[in-house]
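User: Fold this; tokens only.

Assistant: Input:
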Amino acid sequence: MLVDSHCHLDRLDLTPYNGSLDAALQAARDGGVGRFLCIGVSADNAATVKQLAHQHADVFASVGIHPLDLQPEQQPSLDWLLAELDDPRVVAIGETGLDYHYEPQMAADQQRAFSLHLQAAKQTGKPVVIHTREARQDTLELLRAADLPNAGVLHCFTEDWAMAKAALDMGYYISLSGIVTFRNAQALREVALQVPADRLLVETDAPYLAPIPHRGKSNEPRYVRDVAEFLAQLRGVSFDALAEQTTANFERLFPLAAV
């Protein structure tokens, strides 16, 4: 069994399935995907991802504010986060983190919000789902300061081995998406070869970043199999072994989603 450890089910293009999310999920199940982590990115979609998790036994949710969804005049509050996290189907905090690529002028606001999410993680014991882009030093410094025993995952990882190693040393996991299959991703493939087997996750980040051979199409959870098959071949292990290992890793990191 595979797990899509990071997908946005509320944003999928369901045109191929006549608008049916159930059909899209079933297509993934038919391909061996047995669980889905549906990611919260804003206050607006928190209720939606939780509803989806309650409607589907194999769907779980996270809640948080993506750094690119922050509104300067509407910083999230700790009380709001803790209230949203108080749900048995919410197994993680995030997507949170830092992104200086698109909004470097929001760096201070992003750091405040990220710190708030890390504080909520410390209080609840739930792991964090981290987005980081062109913010390596600040991301690692905030993670070190938080010193979370439950850690979390750097999702859709695209940074170098030095950052991966620093995060791994703090207990974090590394999740790889379809980007690792892209022709220009040789540096990322070198990182993928070095991540310890017991710290590796796979994801789609659907509907974004569809892997080869689906590049250019809208991504969907069933394509996590393509990511896993590529990584298995890259790392020189069987597909079944990689699927079993990444599923065990997911259950260890997100124990509330272990079924």
